[in-house]
Write a structure and sequence with these properties.
single chain, globular, five-stranded antiparallel beta sheet, mainly beta
């Protein structure tokens, strides 16, 4: 009887590490970040040309988060959670981030005691470079440097990049 109880207990305990969710089309992790390749992109209610256009994204390089995939369509959302279905040809794997704090300081190295290279305004779209657990290297408008990851949207808090 004790053996059956142990077996039942062992089978009812969930696995220690949950499997990462992956897209059914690309097998890439979901959610993940991408950017707008085009200057304009129709955002539809569903994954086809027959679905109504709810609005149009009008900012090239804007970071977006892919949350689902269906054929050639990707369900995306922006920083505010607004989104819908966009054709994959309008998206790029080039990583960008949105600066979320006004006058975000940009440092020459990941150290807030170092001198400030520049300040980026709220809403600036910057190219994403390397990231440590707390800092990311970004560039925009001819300036580049490091800023705390908490100042950015478009990068996961746990994400590391070389």
């Amino acid at each position: 009887m004790a053996l059956y109880s142990l077996l039942f207990l062992a089978l009812s305990i969930p696995a220690a590490s949950a499997e990462e969710k992956r897209g059914q089309v690309t097998n890439l992790p979901l959610p993940r970040f991408v950017s707008m390749k085009a200057n304009e992109g129709n955002v539809r209610r569903g994954p086809s040309l027959t679905h109504r256009i709810d609005w149009v994204f009008k900012r090239r390089d804007m970071p977006l988060q892919i949350t689902a995939e269906y054929g050639n369509w990707r369900k995306v959302q922006d920083r505010d959670g607004a989104g819908g279905w966009v054709h994959y040809a309008l998206l790029s794997g080039v990583r960008t981030v949105l600066v979320e704090q006004d006058m975000t300081p940009i440092y020459p190295r990941p150290d807030s005691n170092s001198p400030v290279n520049a300040h980026f305004e709220n809403g600036v779209v910057a190219r994403l470079g390397s990231c440590t657990i707390d800092w990311c290297r970004i560039s925009a408008g001819g300036y580049s440097g490091w800023t705390p990851k908490t100042n950015l949207w478009g990068v996961d808090p746990e994400e590391l990049r070389d």
